[in-house]
Each structure stands twice: as C-alpha cells, then as structure tokens.
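Hi everyone, sorry if this is the wrong subforum. Our group has a chain we'd like a structural model of before ordering constructs, and none of us has done structure prediction before. Sequence below.
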Amino acid sequence: MIRWQITKGCSRLTPGCDNCPSYWEYKKGNKDYHPVFQRDRINEPRRFEKRDDVIVSPGSDIFHEAIRTSELLQILHTIQHCPQHSFEIGTKRIERVESLDWEWPDNVVMGVAVEQTRYKWRIDALRNVKARRFVSFSPVLEDIGEVNLDGIHYAGAMLEDWGNKPRKGEQAWTDDLYDQIEAQGVVVLGQRWMYQSREAS
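Answer:
Right subforum, don't worry. Here is the predicted structure as tokens:
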C-alpha cells in the first residue's frame, strides 16, 4: 500500500479526533497542519510503476471544508486516469461527499469512521455514495450497538491504541461489531492499513 498525501492537515470534528496527531499539531498552531491541498503531488499516482492500493491522505480529510471543490475535481481527474490502482478514501465529512452526488470510478473505495452511536448516521449517508463502500469503526469509544451494514462492502473495528493517552475501551465492543460484520456478509477490513502503508516518494 502507498500513501498519497494530496492534502495535509485537518481540524477536530468529533471526539474520535482527539488523539489524532494532526489535530494536536493543529491545536498547537503548527501551520503545517492547517488543511491544505498539495498541488505539487497531484500526479504522484501516475508515476507508481506497479498496480497498488493507494491510501488517500491518511491523517487528513480531502473533504474538509478548506479543500475547494475545484481541487477535489483535480483529485478525481487523477484517479480516473489511474485505473490500475485502487484508491481508499476515508472521511468523517460524508455529508459533503453525499451532496456532491458524483459517480466515483470503480477503483475508488469510499469510507466513513464511526466511533460512537451518535455517528451511525454516517453509514446511512455513505449508502447514498456511488462507489464501493467501507465503514471503519475506529476508534471505538463506546458500545455502538446494532448496526445496519446493508450496501457496505468492507468493515472493521478497533479500539484506540495510539496517542499519548489512549482511551480505554472494552474488547466486547469490537467483538460485537465483528460478529455483526460477519453475520451480514461484509468483508472484514484490515484496520492497520494506514500504519502499514508507505508514503509515495
């Protein structure tokens, strides 16, 4: 897997962001972590020699309000011209994706993070997106309860184990989610992809 850092930086949106390194740098006033489109990296995927899975802007969010629609169109254009790669895009701002109402190429897997019960609505919004879909229950901060994964292709769950003070969770929370994922016939998503991937050089 390769990381394509076409945007960098982010800002806090929900409690799931509280241990994200990008959020802490943003909070400290580090200008490098204010959300920005990195135009000089737009053609990186075209230079990848072998077919690969491309993680789009981990630790950032290309659908942040600071990223212009015109910049998103540039990202889409690059993806369309790299059909040999699979692009995994995760967001907590799925309502923006839904409002764009774009038909994403077959090589896009669009996903949302759901860390608490109150954010299960993101799954419903994701179902309206014309793409392959994944749900990342990460970090699981409470018992999320019953979930409807109809129309979802991949899903996974993990407790928080990063940051200076990882928030303690119950193994039963993720076990229950995995039981539901398997019972609904959804492919289990490998939750370590963000950390195992390598950044494009």
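For your construct planning: The domain at 2-188 is CATH 3.80.30 (pyruvate-formate lyase- activating enzyme). The longest strand covers residues 86-91.
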